[in-house]
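Just scan my protein:

. . .
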Amino acid sequence: MRFLFVGDSQTIGRAGDHTWRYRMWQHLGASFGGPFKIVGPRDGLYDPSADAPVSYAYADEDWPLHARRHLAGWGEGWQHMVPLVGDAVRGGKAQVLLVALGLIDLGFYTNSEQTADNVRRFFAEARAANPGVRAVVLPVIPNIRAQADDSFAEEVDHFNTLLAKAVAELDSPSSPLLLASLPQDYDIHRDTYDGTHPGPSGERRIAAAFATALHQGWGLGGPYEDR
C-alpha cells in the first residue's frame, strides 16, 4: 500500500525534527503486516535560516531517504495543495492520503467556509487522479493563538465541524474517507515547542491519531505503541 503524507508546517517539520511522518513510518513498519511505501514529490524539511524547505537534517539521519517522501509545506494549506494533489497522487500512485491541514489556512488565508470549500476541491482533484484513493483527515489542533484569541478559536471549532460534515458527505464505498480524532491528551505547552509545532511527544500523539483511525476504521496496522 502506498501512503502520501499531506500537510503544512506541522507535517513538513523543520531542521532537526523527527516529524510525525517519521513516527508514522515507524508504526507502519512495526504493525502494518505487509508491504507499504511512502510516496510524494518532496522529501525535505523547512530550514528557518534560509526560510525555505531546503534542509535534510532529520533528527534520525538513518531514516531511509525513500521513506521521507511527502507533500507538505511550511505556510501551505488546503488551498495550496488543491492544484498539487492530483499530480502527487498520480505520480506516486498514492492509495492512502494522511492529511493534516487547516490551521495555516484559517490563520492567514481563508475563513472556515472557504477552507471547507477547498477541502472539497482537494478531494475532487485527488479522486480525478485515483478514483479509489482513501484518506484519513486530522481535524485542526487548536494552537496558542486559539487560546489567546476567542474569535480564532471559534473559527477553528467551526471549521472542524464543517470538516466533519465534508468528510461524511464525501465518504464513499469506492473512495472511503475517515475523520481522525484529535490527538489524545494533546497539550500545546508540553507537546509543541512554540505553541503550534509538535515536539517529540506531539509528533507521537499525532501519529497515534492517524494510526488509531487506520486500525479502527479499516483494520490497517495495529494500535499505536510509543517508540
